Amino acid sequence: MAFRSFSPRSGRRFLGIIALAIVFYNEFLVYKIQSLSWKSIPCQSGNCTRILLVADPQLIGQTFDTSFYNPLAIHDSDRYLKKSFREVLDHTRPHIIPFLGDLFDEGSVATNEEYSSYLRRFHDIFHTDSSIMKIYVPGDNDIGGENGEIVTPTKVNRFKSTFHTKNTYSWNNLIFYEANRLTREIPQPSTTPAPPYSSQRRFVLSHMSLLFYNDAFQERVLRYVLPHVIFTGHLHRSLFIRKSLKLSEFTRAHPLNANSERHMVNSFDLRDAETFLEIMVPTCSYRMGERNIGFGYAVVDGEDLLYTVLWSVDRFAQLFLYLIYILVCFIFLTTKLIFTCSIFATKKLQRLRITYSKV
Question: E strands, 10-95, where?
């Protein structure tokens, strides 16, 4: 009787309310809830530089995936990146935003028209105030180098002219150098690096890891720049490497901000002249297949580098919630259809019995 009193209209109303609640939670509320877990990094010295690190957004292209749902995938991925970036931007209020490569998924194979389309989407997603200094580092998906794809001067020059890249960038006492393992370009300081006791702080930005590979390129970059910190992407995970001045020693990457320490603020002493430090920033795109994605947040506070990861919303969990809702709707409507058909069949059988009895 309870199910019979549950009319189709009330059932549709109930499913509609649930749908609105899920959409509101998935597309709006969950981003605010996630931001509550992020750590703020207060400035102790009174003169800090805040750095927001973006790695491997890899905006979906139009060449490799020609399926009918690709436009929907592009829309969902772009919207997710835009909302996630907007939240971390409000939380960090950065002075500098380095983009650590693989800005586009198909940048290296895109036509000029496609490239312009990807660029418009990129600037719409990562729109910021003009007062923020932005640094763009090319990745293998931007200029080639992945799976045997050739890096050509045309691809490199297109990226450089599009994003107005330079070899070095300065902000107060901070100097950022781009090291490109793909082209083997090594940033050479215009002057000899300042001694360890000076206030100058040198950072190397690279898409691919610098310390993980013991080769001539690594050695030349380290000897030319003597970086205090290296920021990289490419591996899509949050890791760090400490390497001594003995460049030939075995290198191992360790998890950073993982498990119970995922919201921890890590402190690194920039006066450490005995080791090199590399921080690998996780991807910010759920399309990379990683569940743990987010943005790197670093604050240079006097002699210390404070770093944490601002983890993003698990989009796969959101999509799974939509799938569960669709499944519930299917079960509900199927059950309702079966119930309605059984009532219709019962009434028809009763009419036949009445007609037969009269005869």
Answer: 48-53
Instruction: Please state, in angstroms and rounded to a whole number, the distance separating the CA atoms of residues 165 and 177.
Output: 11
- Which residue ranges make up each domain of the chain? 41-313, 323-358
Neighbours of 212 (CB within 10 A): 18
- Per-residue pLDDT tens over the stretch 111-165: 999 999 999 999 999 999 999 999 999 999 999 987 778 999 999 999 999 999 9
Other C-beta atoms within 10 Å of 163: how many? 18
Q: What's 259's DSSP letter?
A: G
User: What letter represents residue 99's amino acid?
Assistant: F
If 0-12 CB within 10 Å is exposed, 13-18 middle and 19+ buried, where does residue 230 land?
buried
For 37-75, how does the pLDDT look when each residue is reduced to its tens digit (9 = 90+)? 999 999 998 889 999 999 999 999 988 877 888 999 999
CATH architecture of 41-313: 4-Layer Sandwich (3.60)
